[in-house]
Amino acid sequence: MAIKIYGPFRSPFVMAVALAIYEKDQEFELLMMDIKSPEYLNNFNPFGKIPSYQDEDITLFESKAIMRYIATKFADEGTPLLGSTIVEQALCNQWLEVHSHSFTQPMVEMARAIRGNPQQPDASVSKPALERVNNVLDTYEARLSTSKYLAGESYTLADITHTPFFYIFNAITDDENKKCITSRPHLHAWIQDISSRPAWKKLTERPENPHYKQ
Ligand SMILES: N[C@@H](CCC(=O)N[C@@H](CS)C(=O)NCC(=O)O)C(=O)O
């Protein structure tokens, strides 16, 4: 059975799973389902969220669990994604947790504030959101001033899980708000690096990507 991912590319979690698959030189089918339908809730994800993943061995939800499974299942193919030493493996896991518990919420709030009124974001909504984003990005700047990638010298799942969030942020925000990235040189260089990888380019050029510009 071909690998199947359920969910659209407007979700950064879906894109992260797809990126892990491409980094492993695998292909996938992207499928849509009504995520609140009994079929989806019973067979794919009882919490009614995307992404879900399916192959001949397993049906799985939660993007980080899916990515770890892919990284392990295809350990000998494509890019190693779990860290090359025990220390990198631990730090990869740490930054995956940081993504879940400290990074995602401020970024999603910021995106919601911008999307609420893309032409003229309401300052009373976007300013606190921007402040929270700036606070968390200070931590990333400090980390990336001492190592090439989040886990160390190796590109890992920790970098993958962040890539679509910064991509969507860049696609929807203006130059003023982008300063939270461009004013942090190490963060900025890291985003440029992880966004110029062939697997990411190949993914963003798929017609399902709503932000794809020819
Ligand atoms: N922790 C989940 C988060 C998934 C998630 O929040 N997905 C959103 C889309 S970005 C979703 O399914 N939203 C639909 C809903 O909440 O109804 C993961 O990593 O897979």
From TrEMBL:
One Gene Ontology term of the molecular function aspect: glutathione transferase activity
Enzyme's top EC category: transferase
Keywords tagged on the record: Transferase
GST C-terminal domain span: 85-211
EC number(s) stated in the UniProt entry for this protein: 2.5.1.18
Catalyses which reaction(s): RX + glutathione = an S-substituted glutathione + a halide anion + H(+)
Record InterPro entries: Glutathione-S-Trfase_C-like, Glutathione-S-Trfase_C_sf, Glutathione_S-Trfase, Glutathione_S-Trfase_N, GST_C, Thioredoxin-like_sf
Domain GST N-terminal residue range list: 1-78
GO annotation (BP), single: response to toxic substance
Family (UniProt): Belongs to the GST superfamily. Phi family.
Protein's name in the database: glutathione transferase
Native source species: Riccia sorocarpa
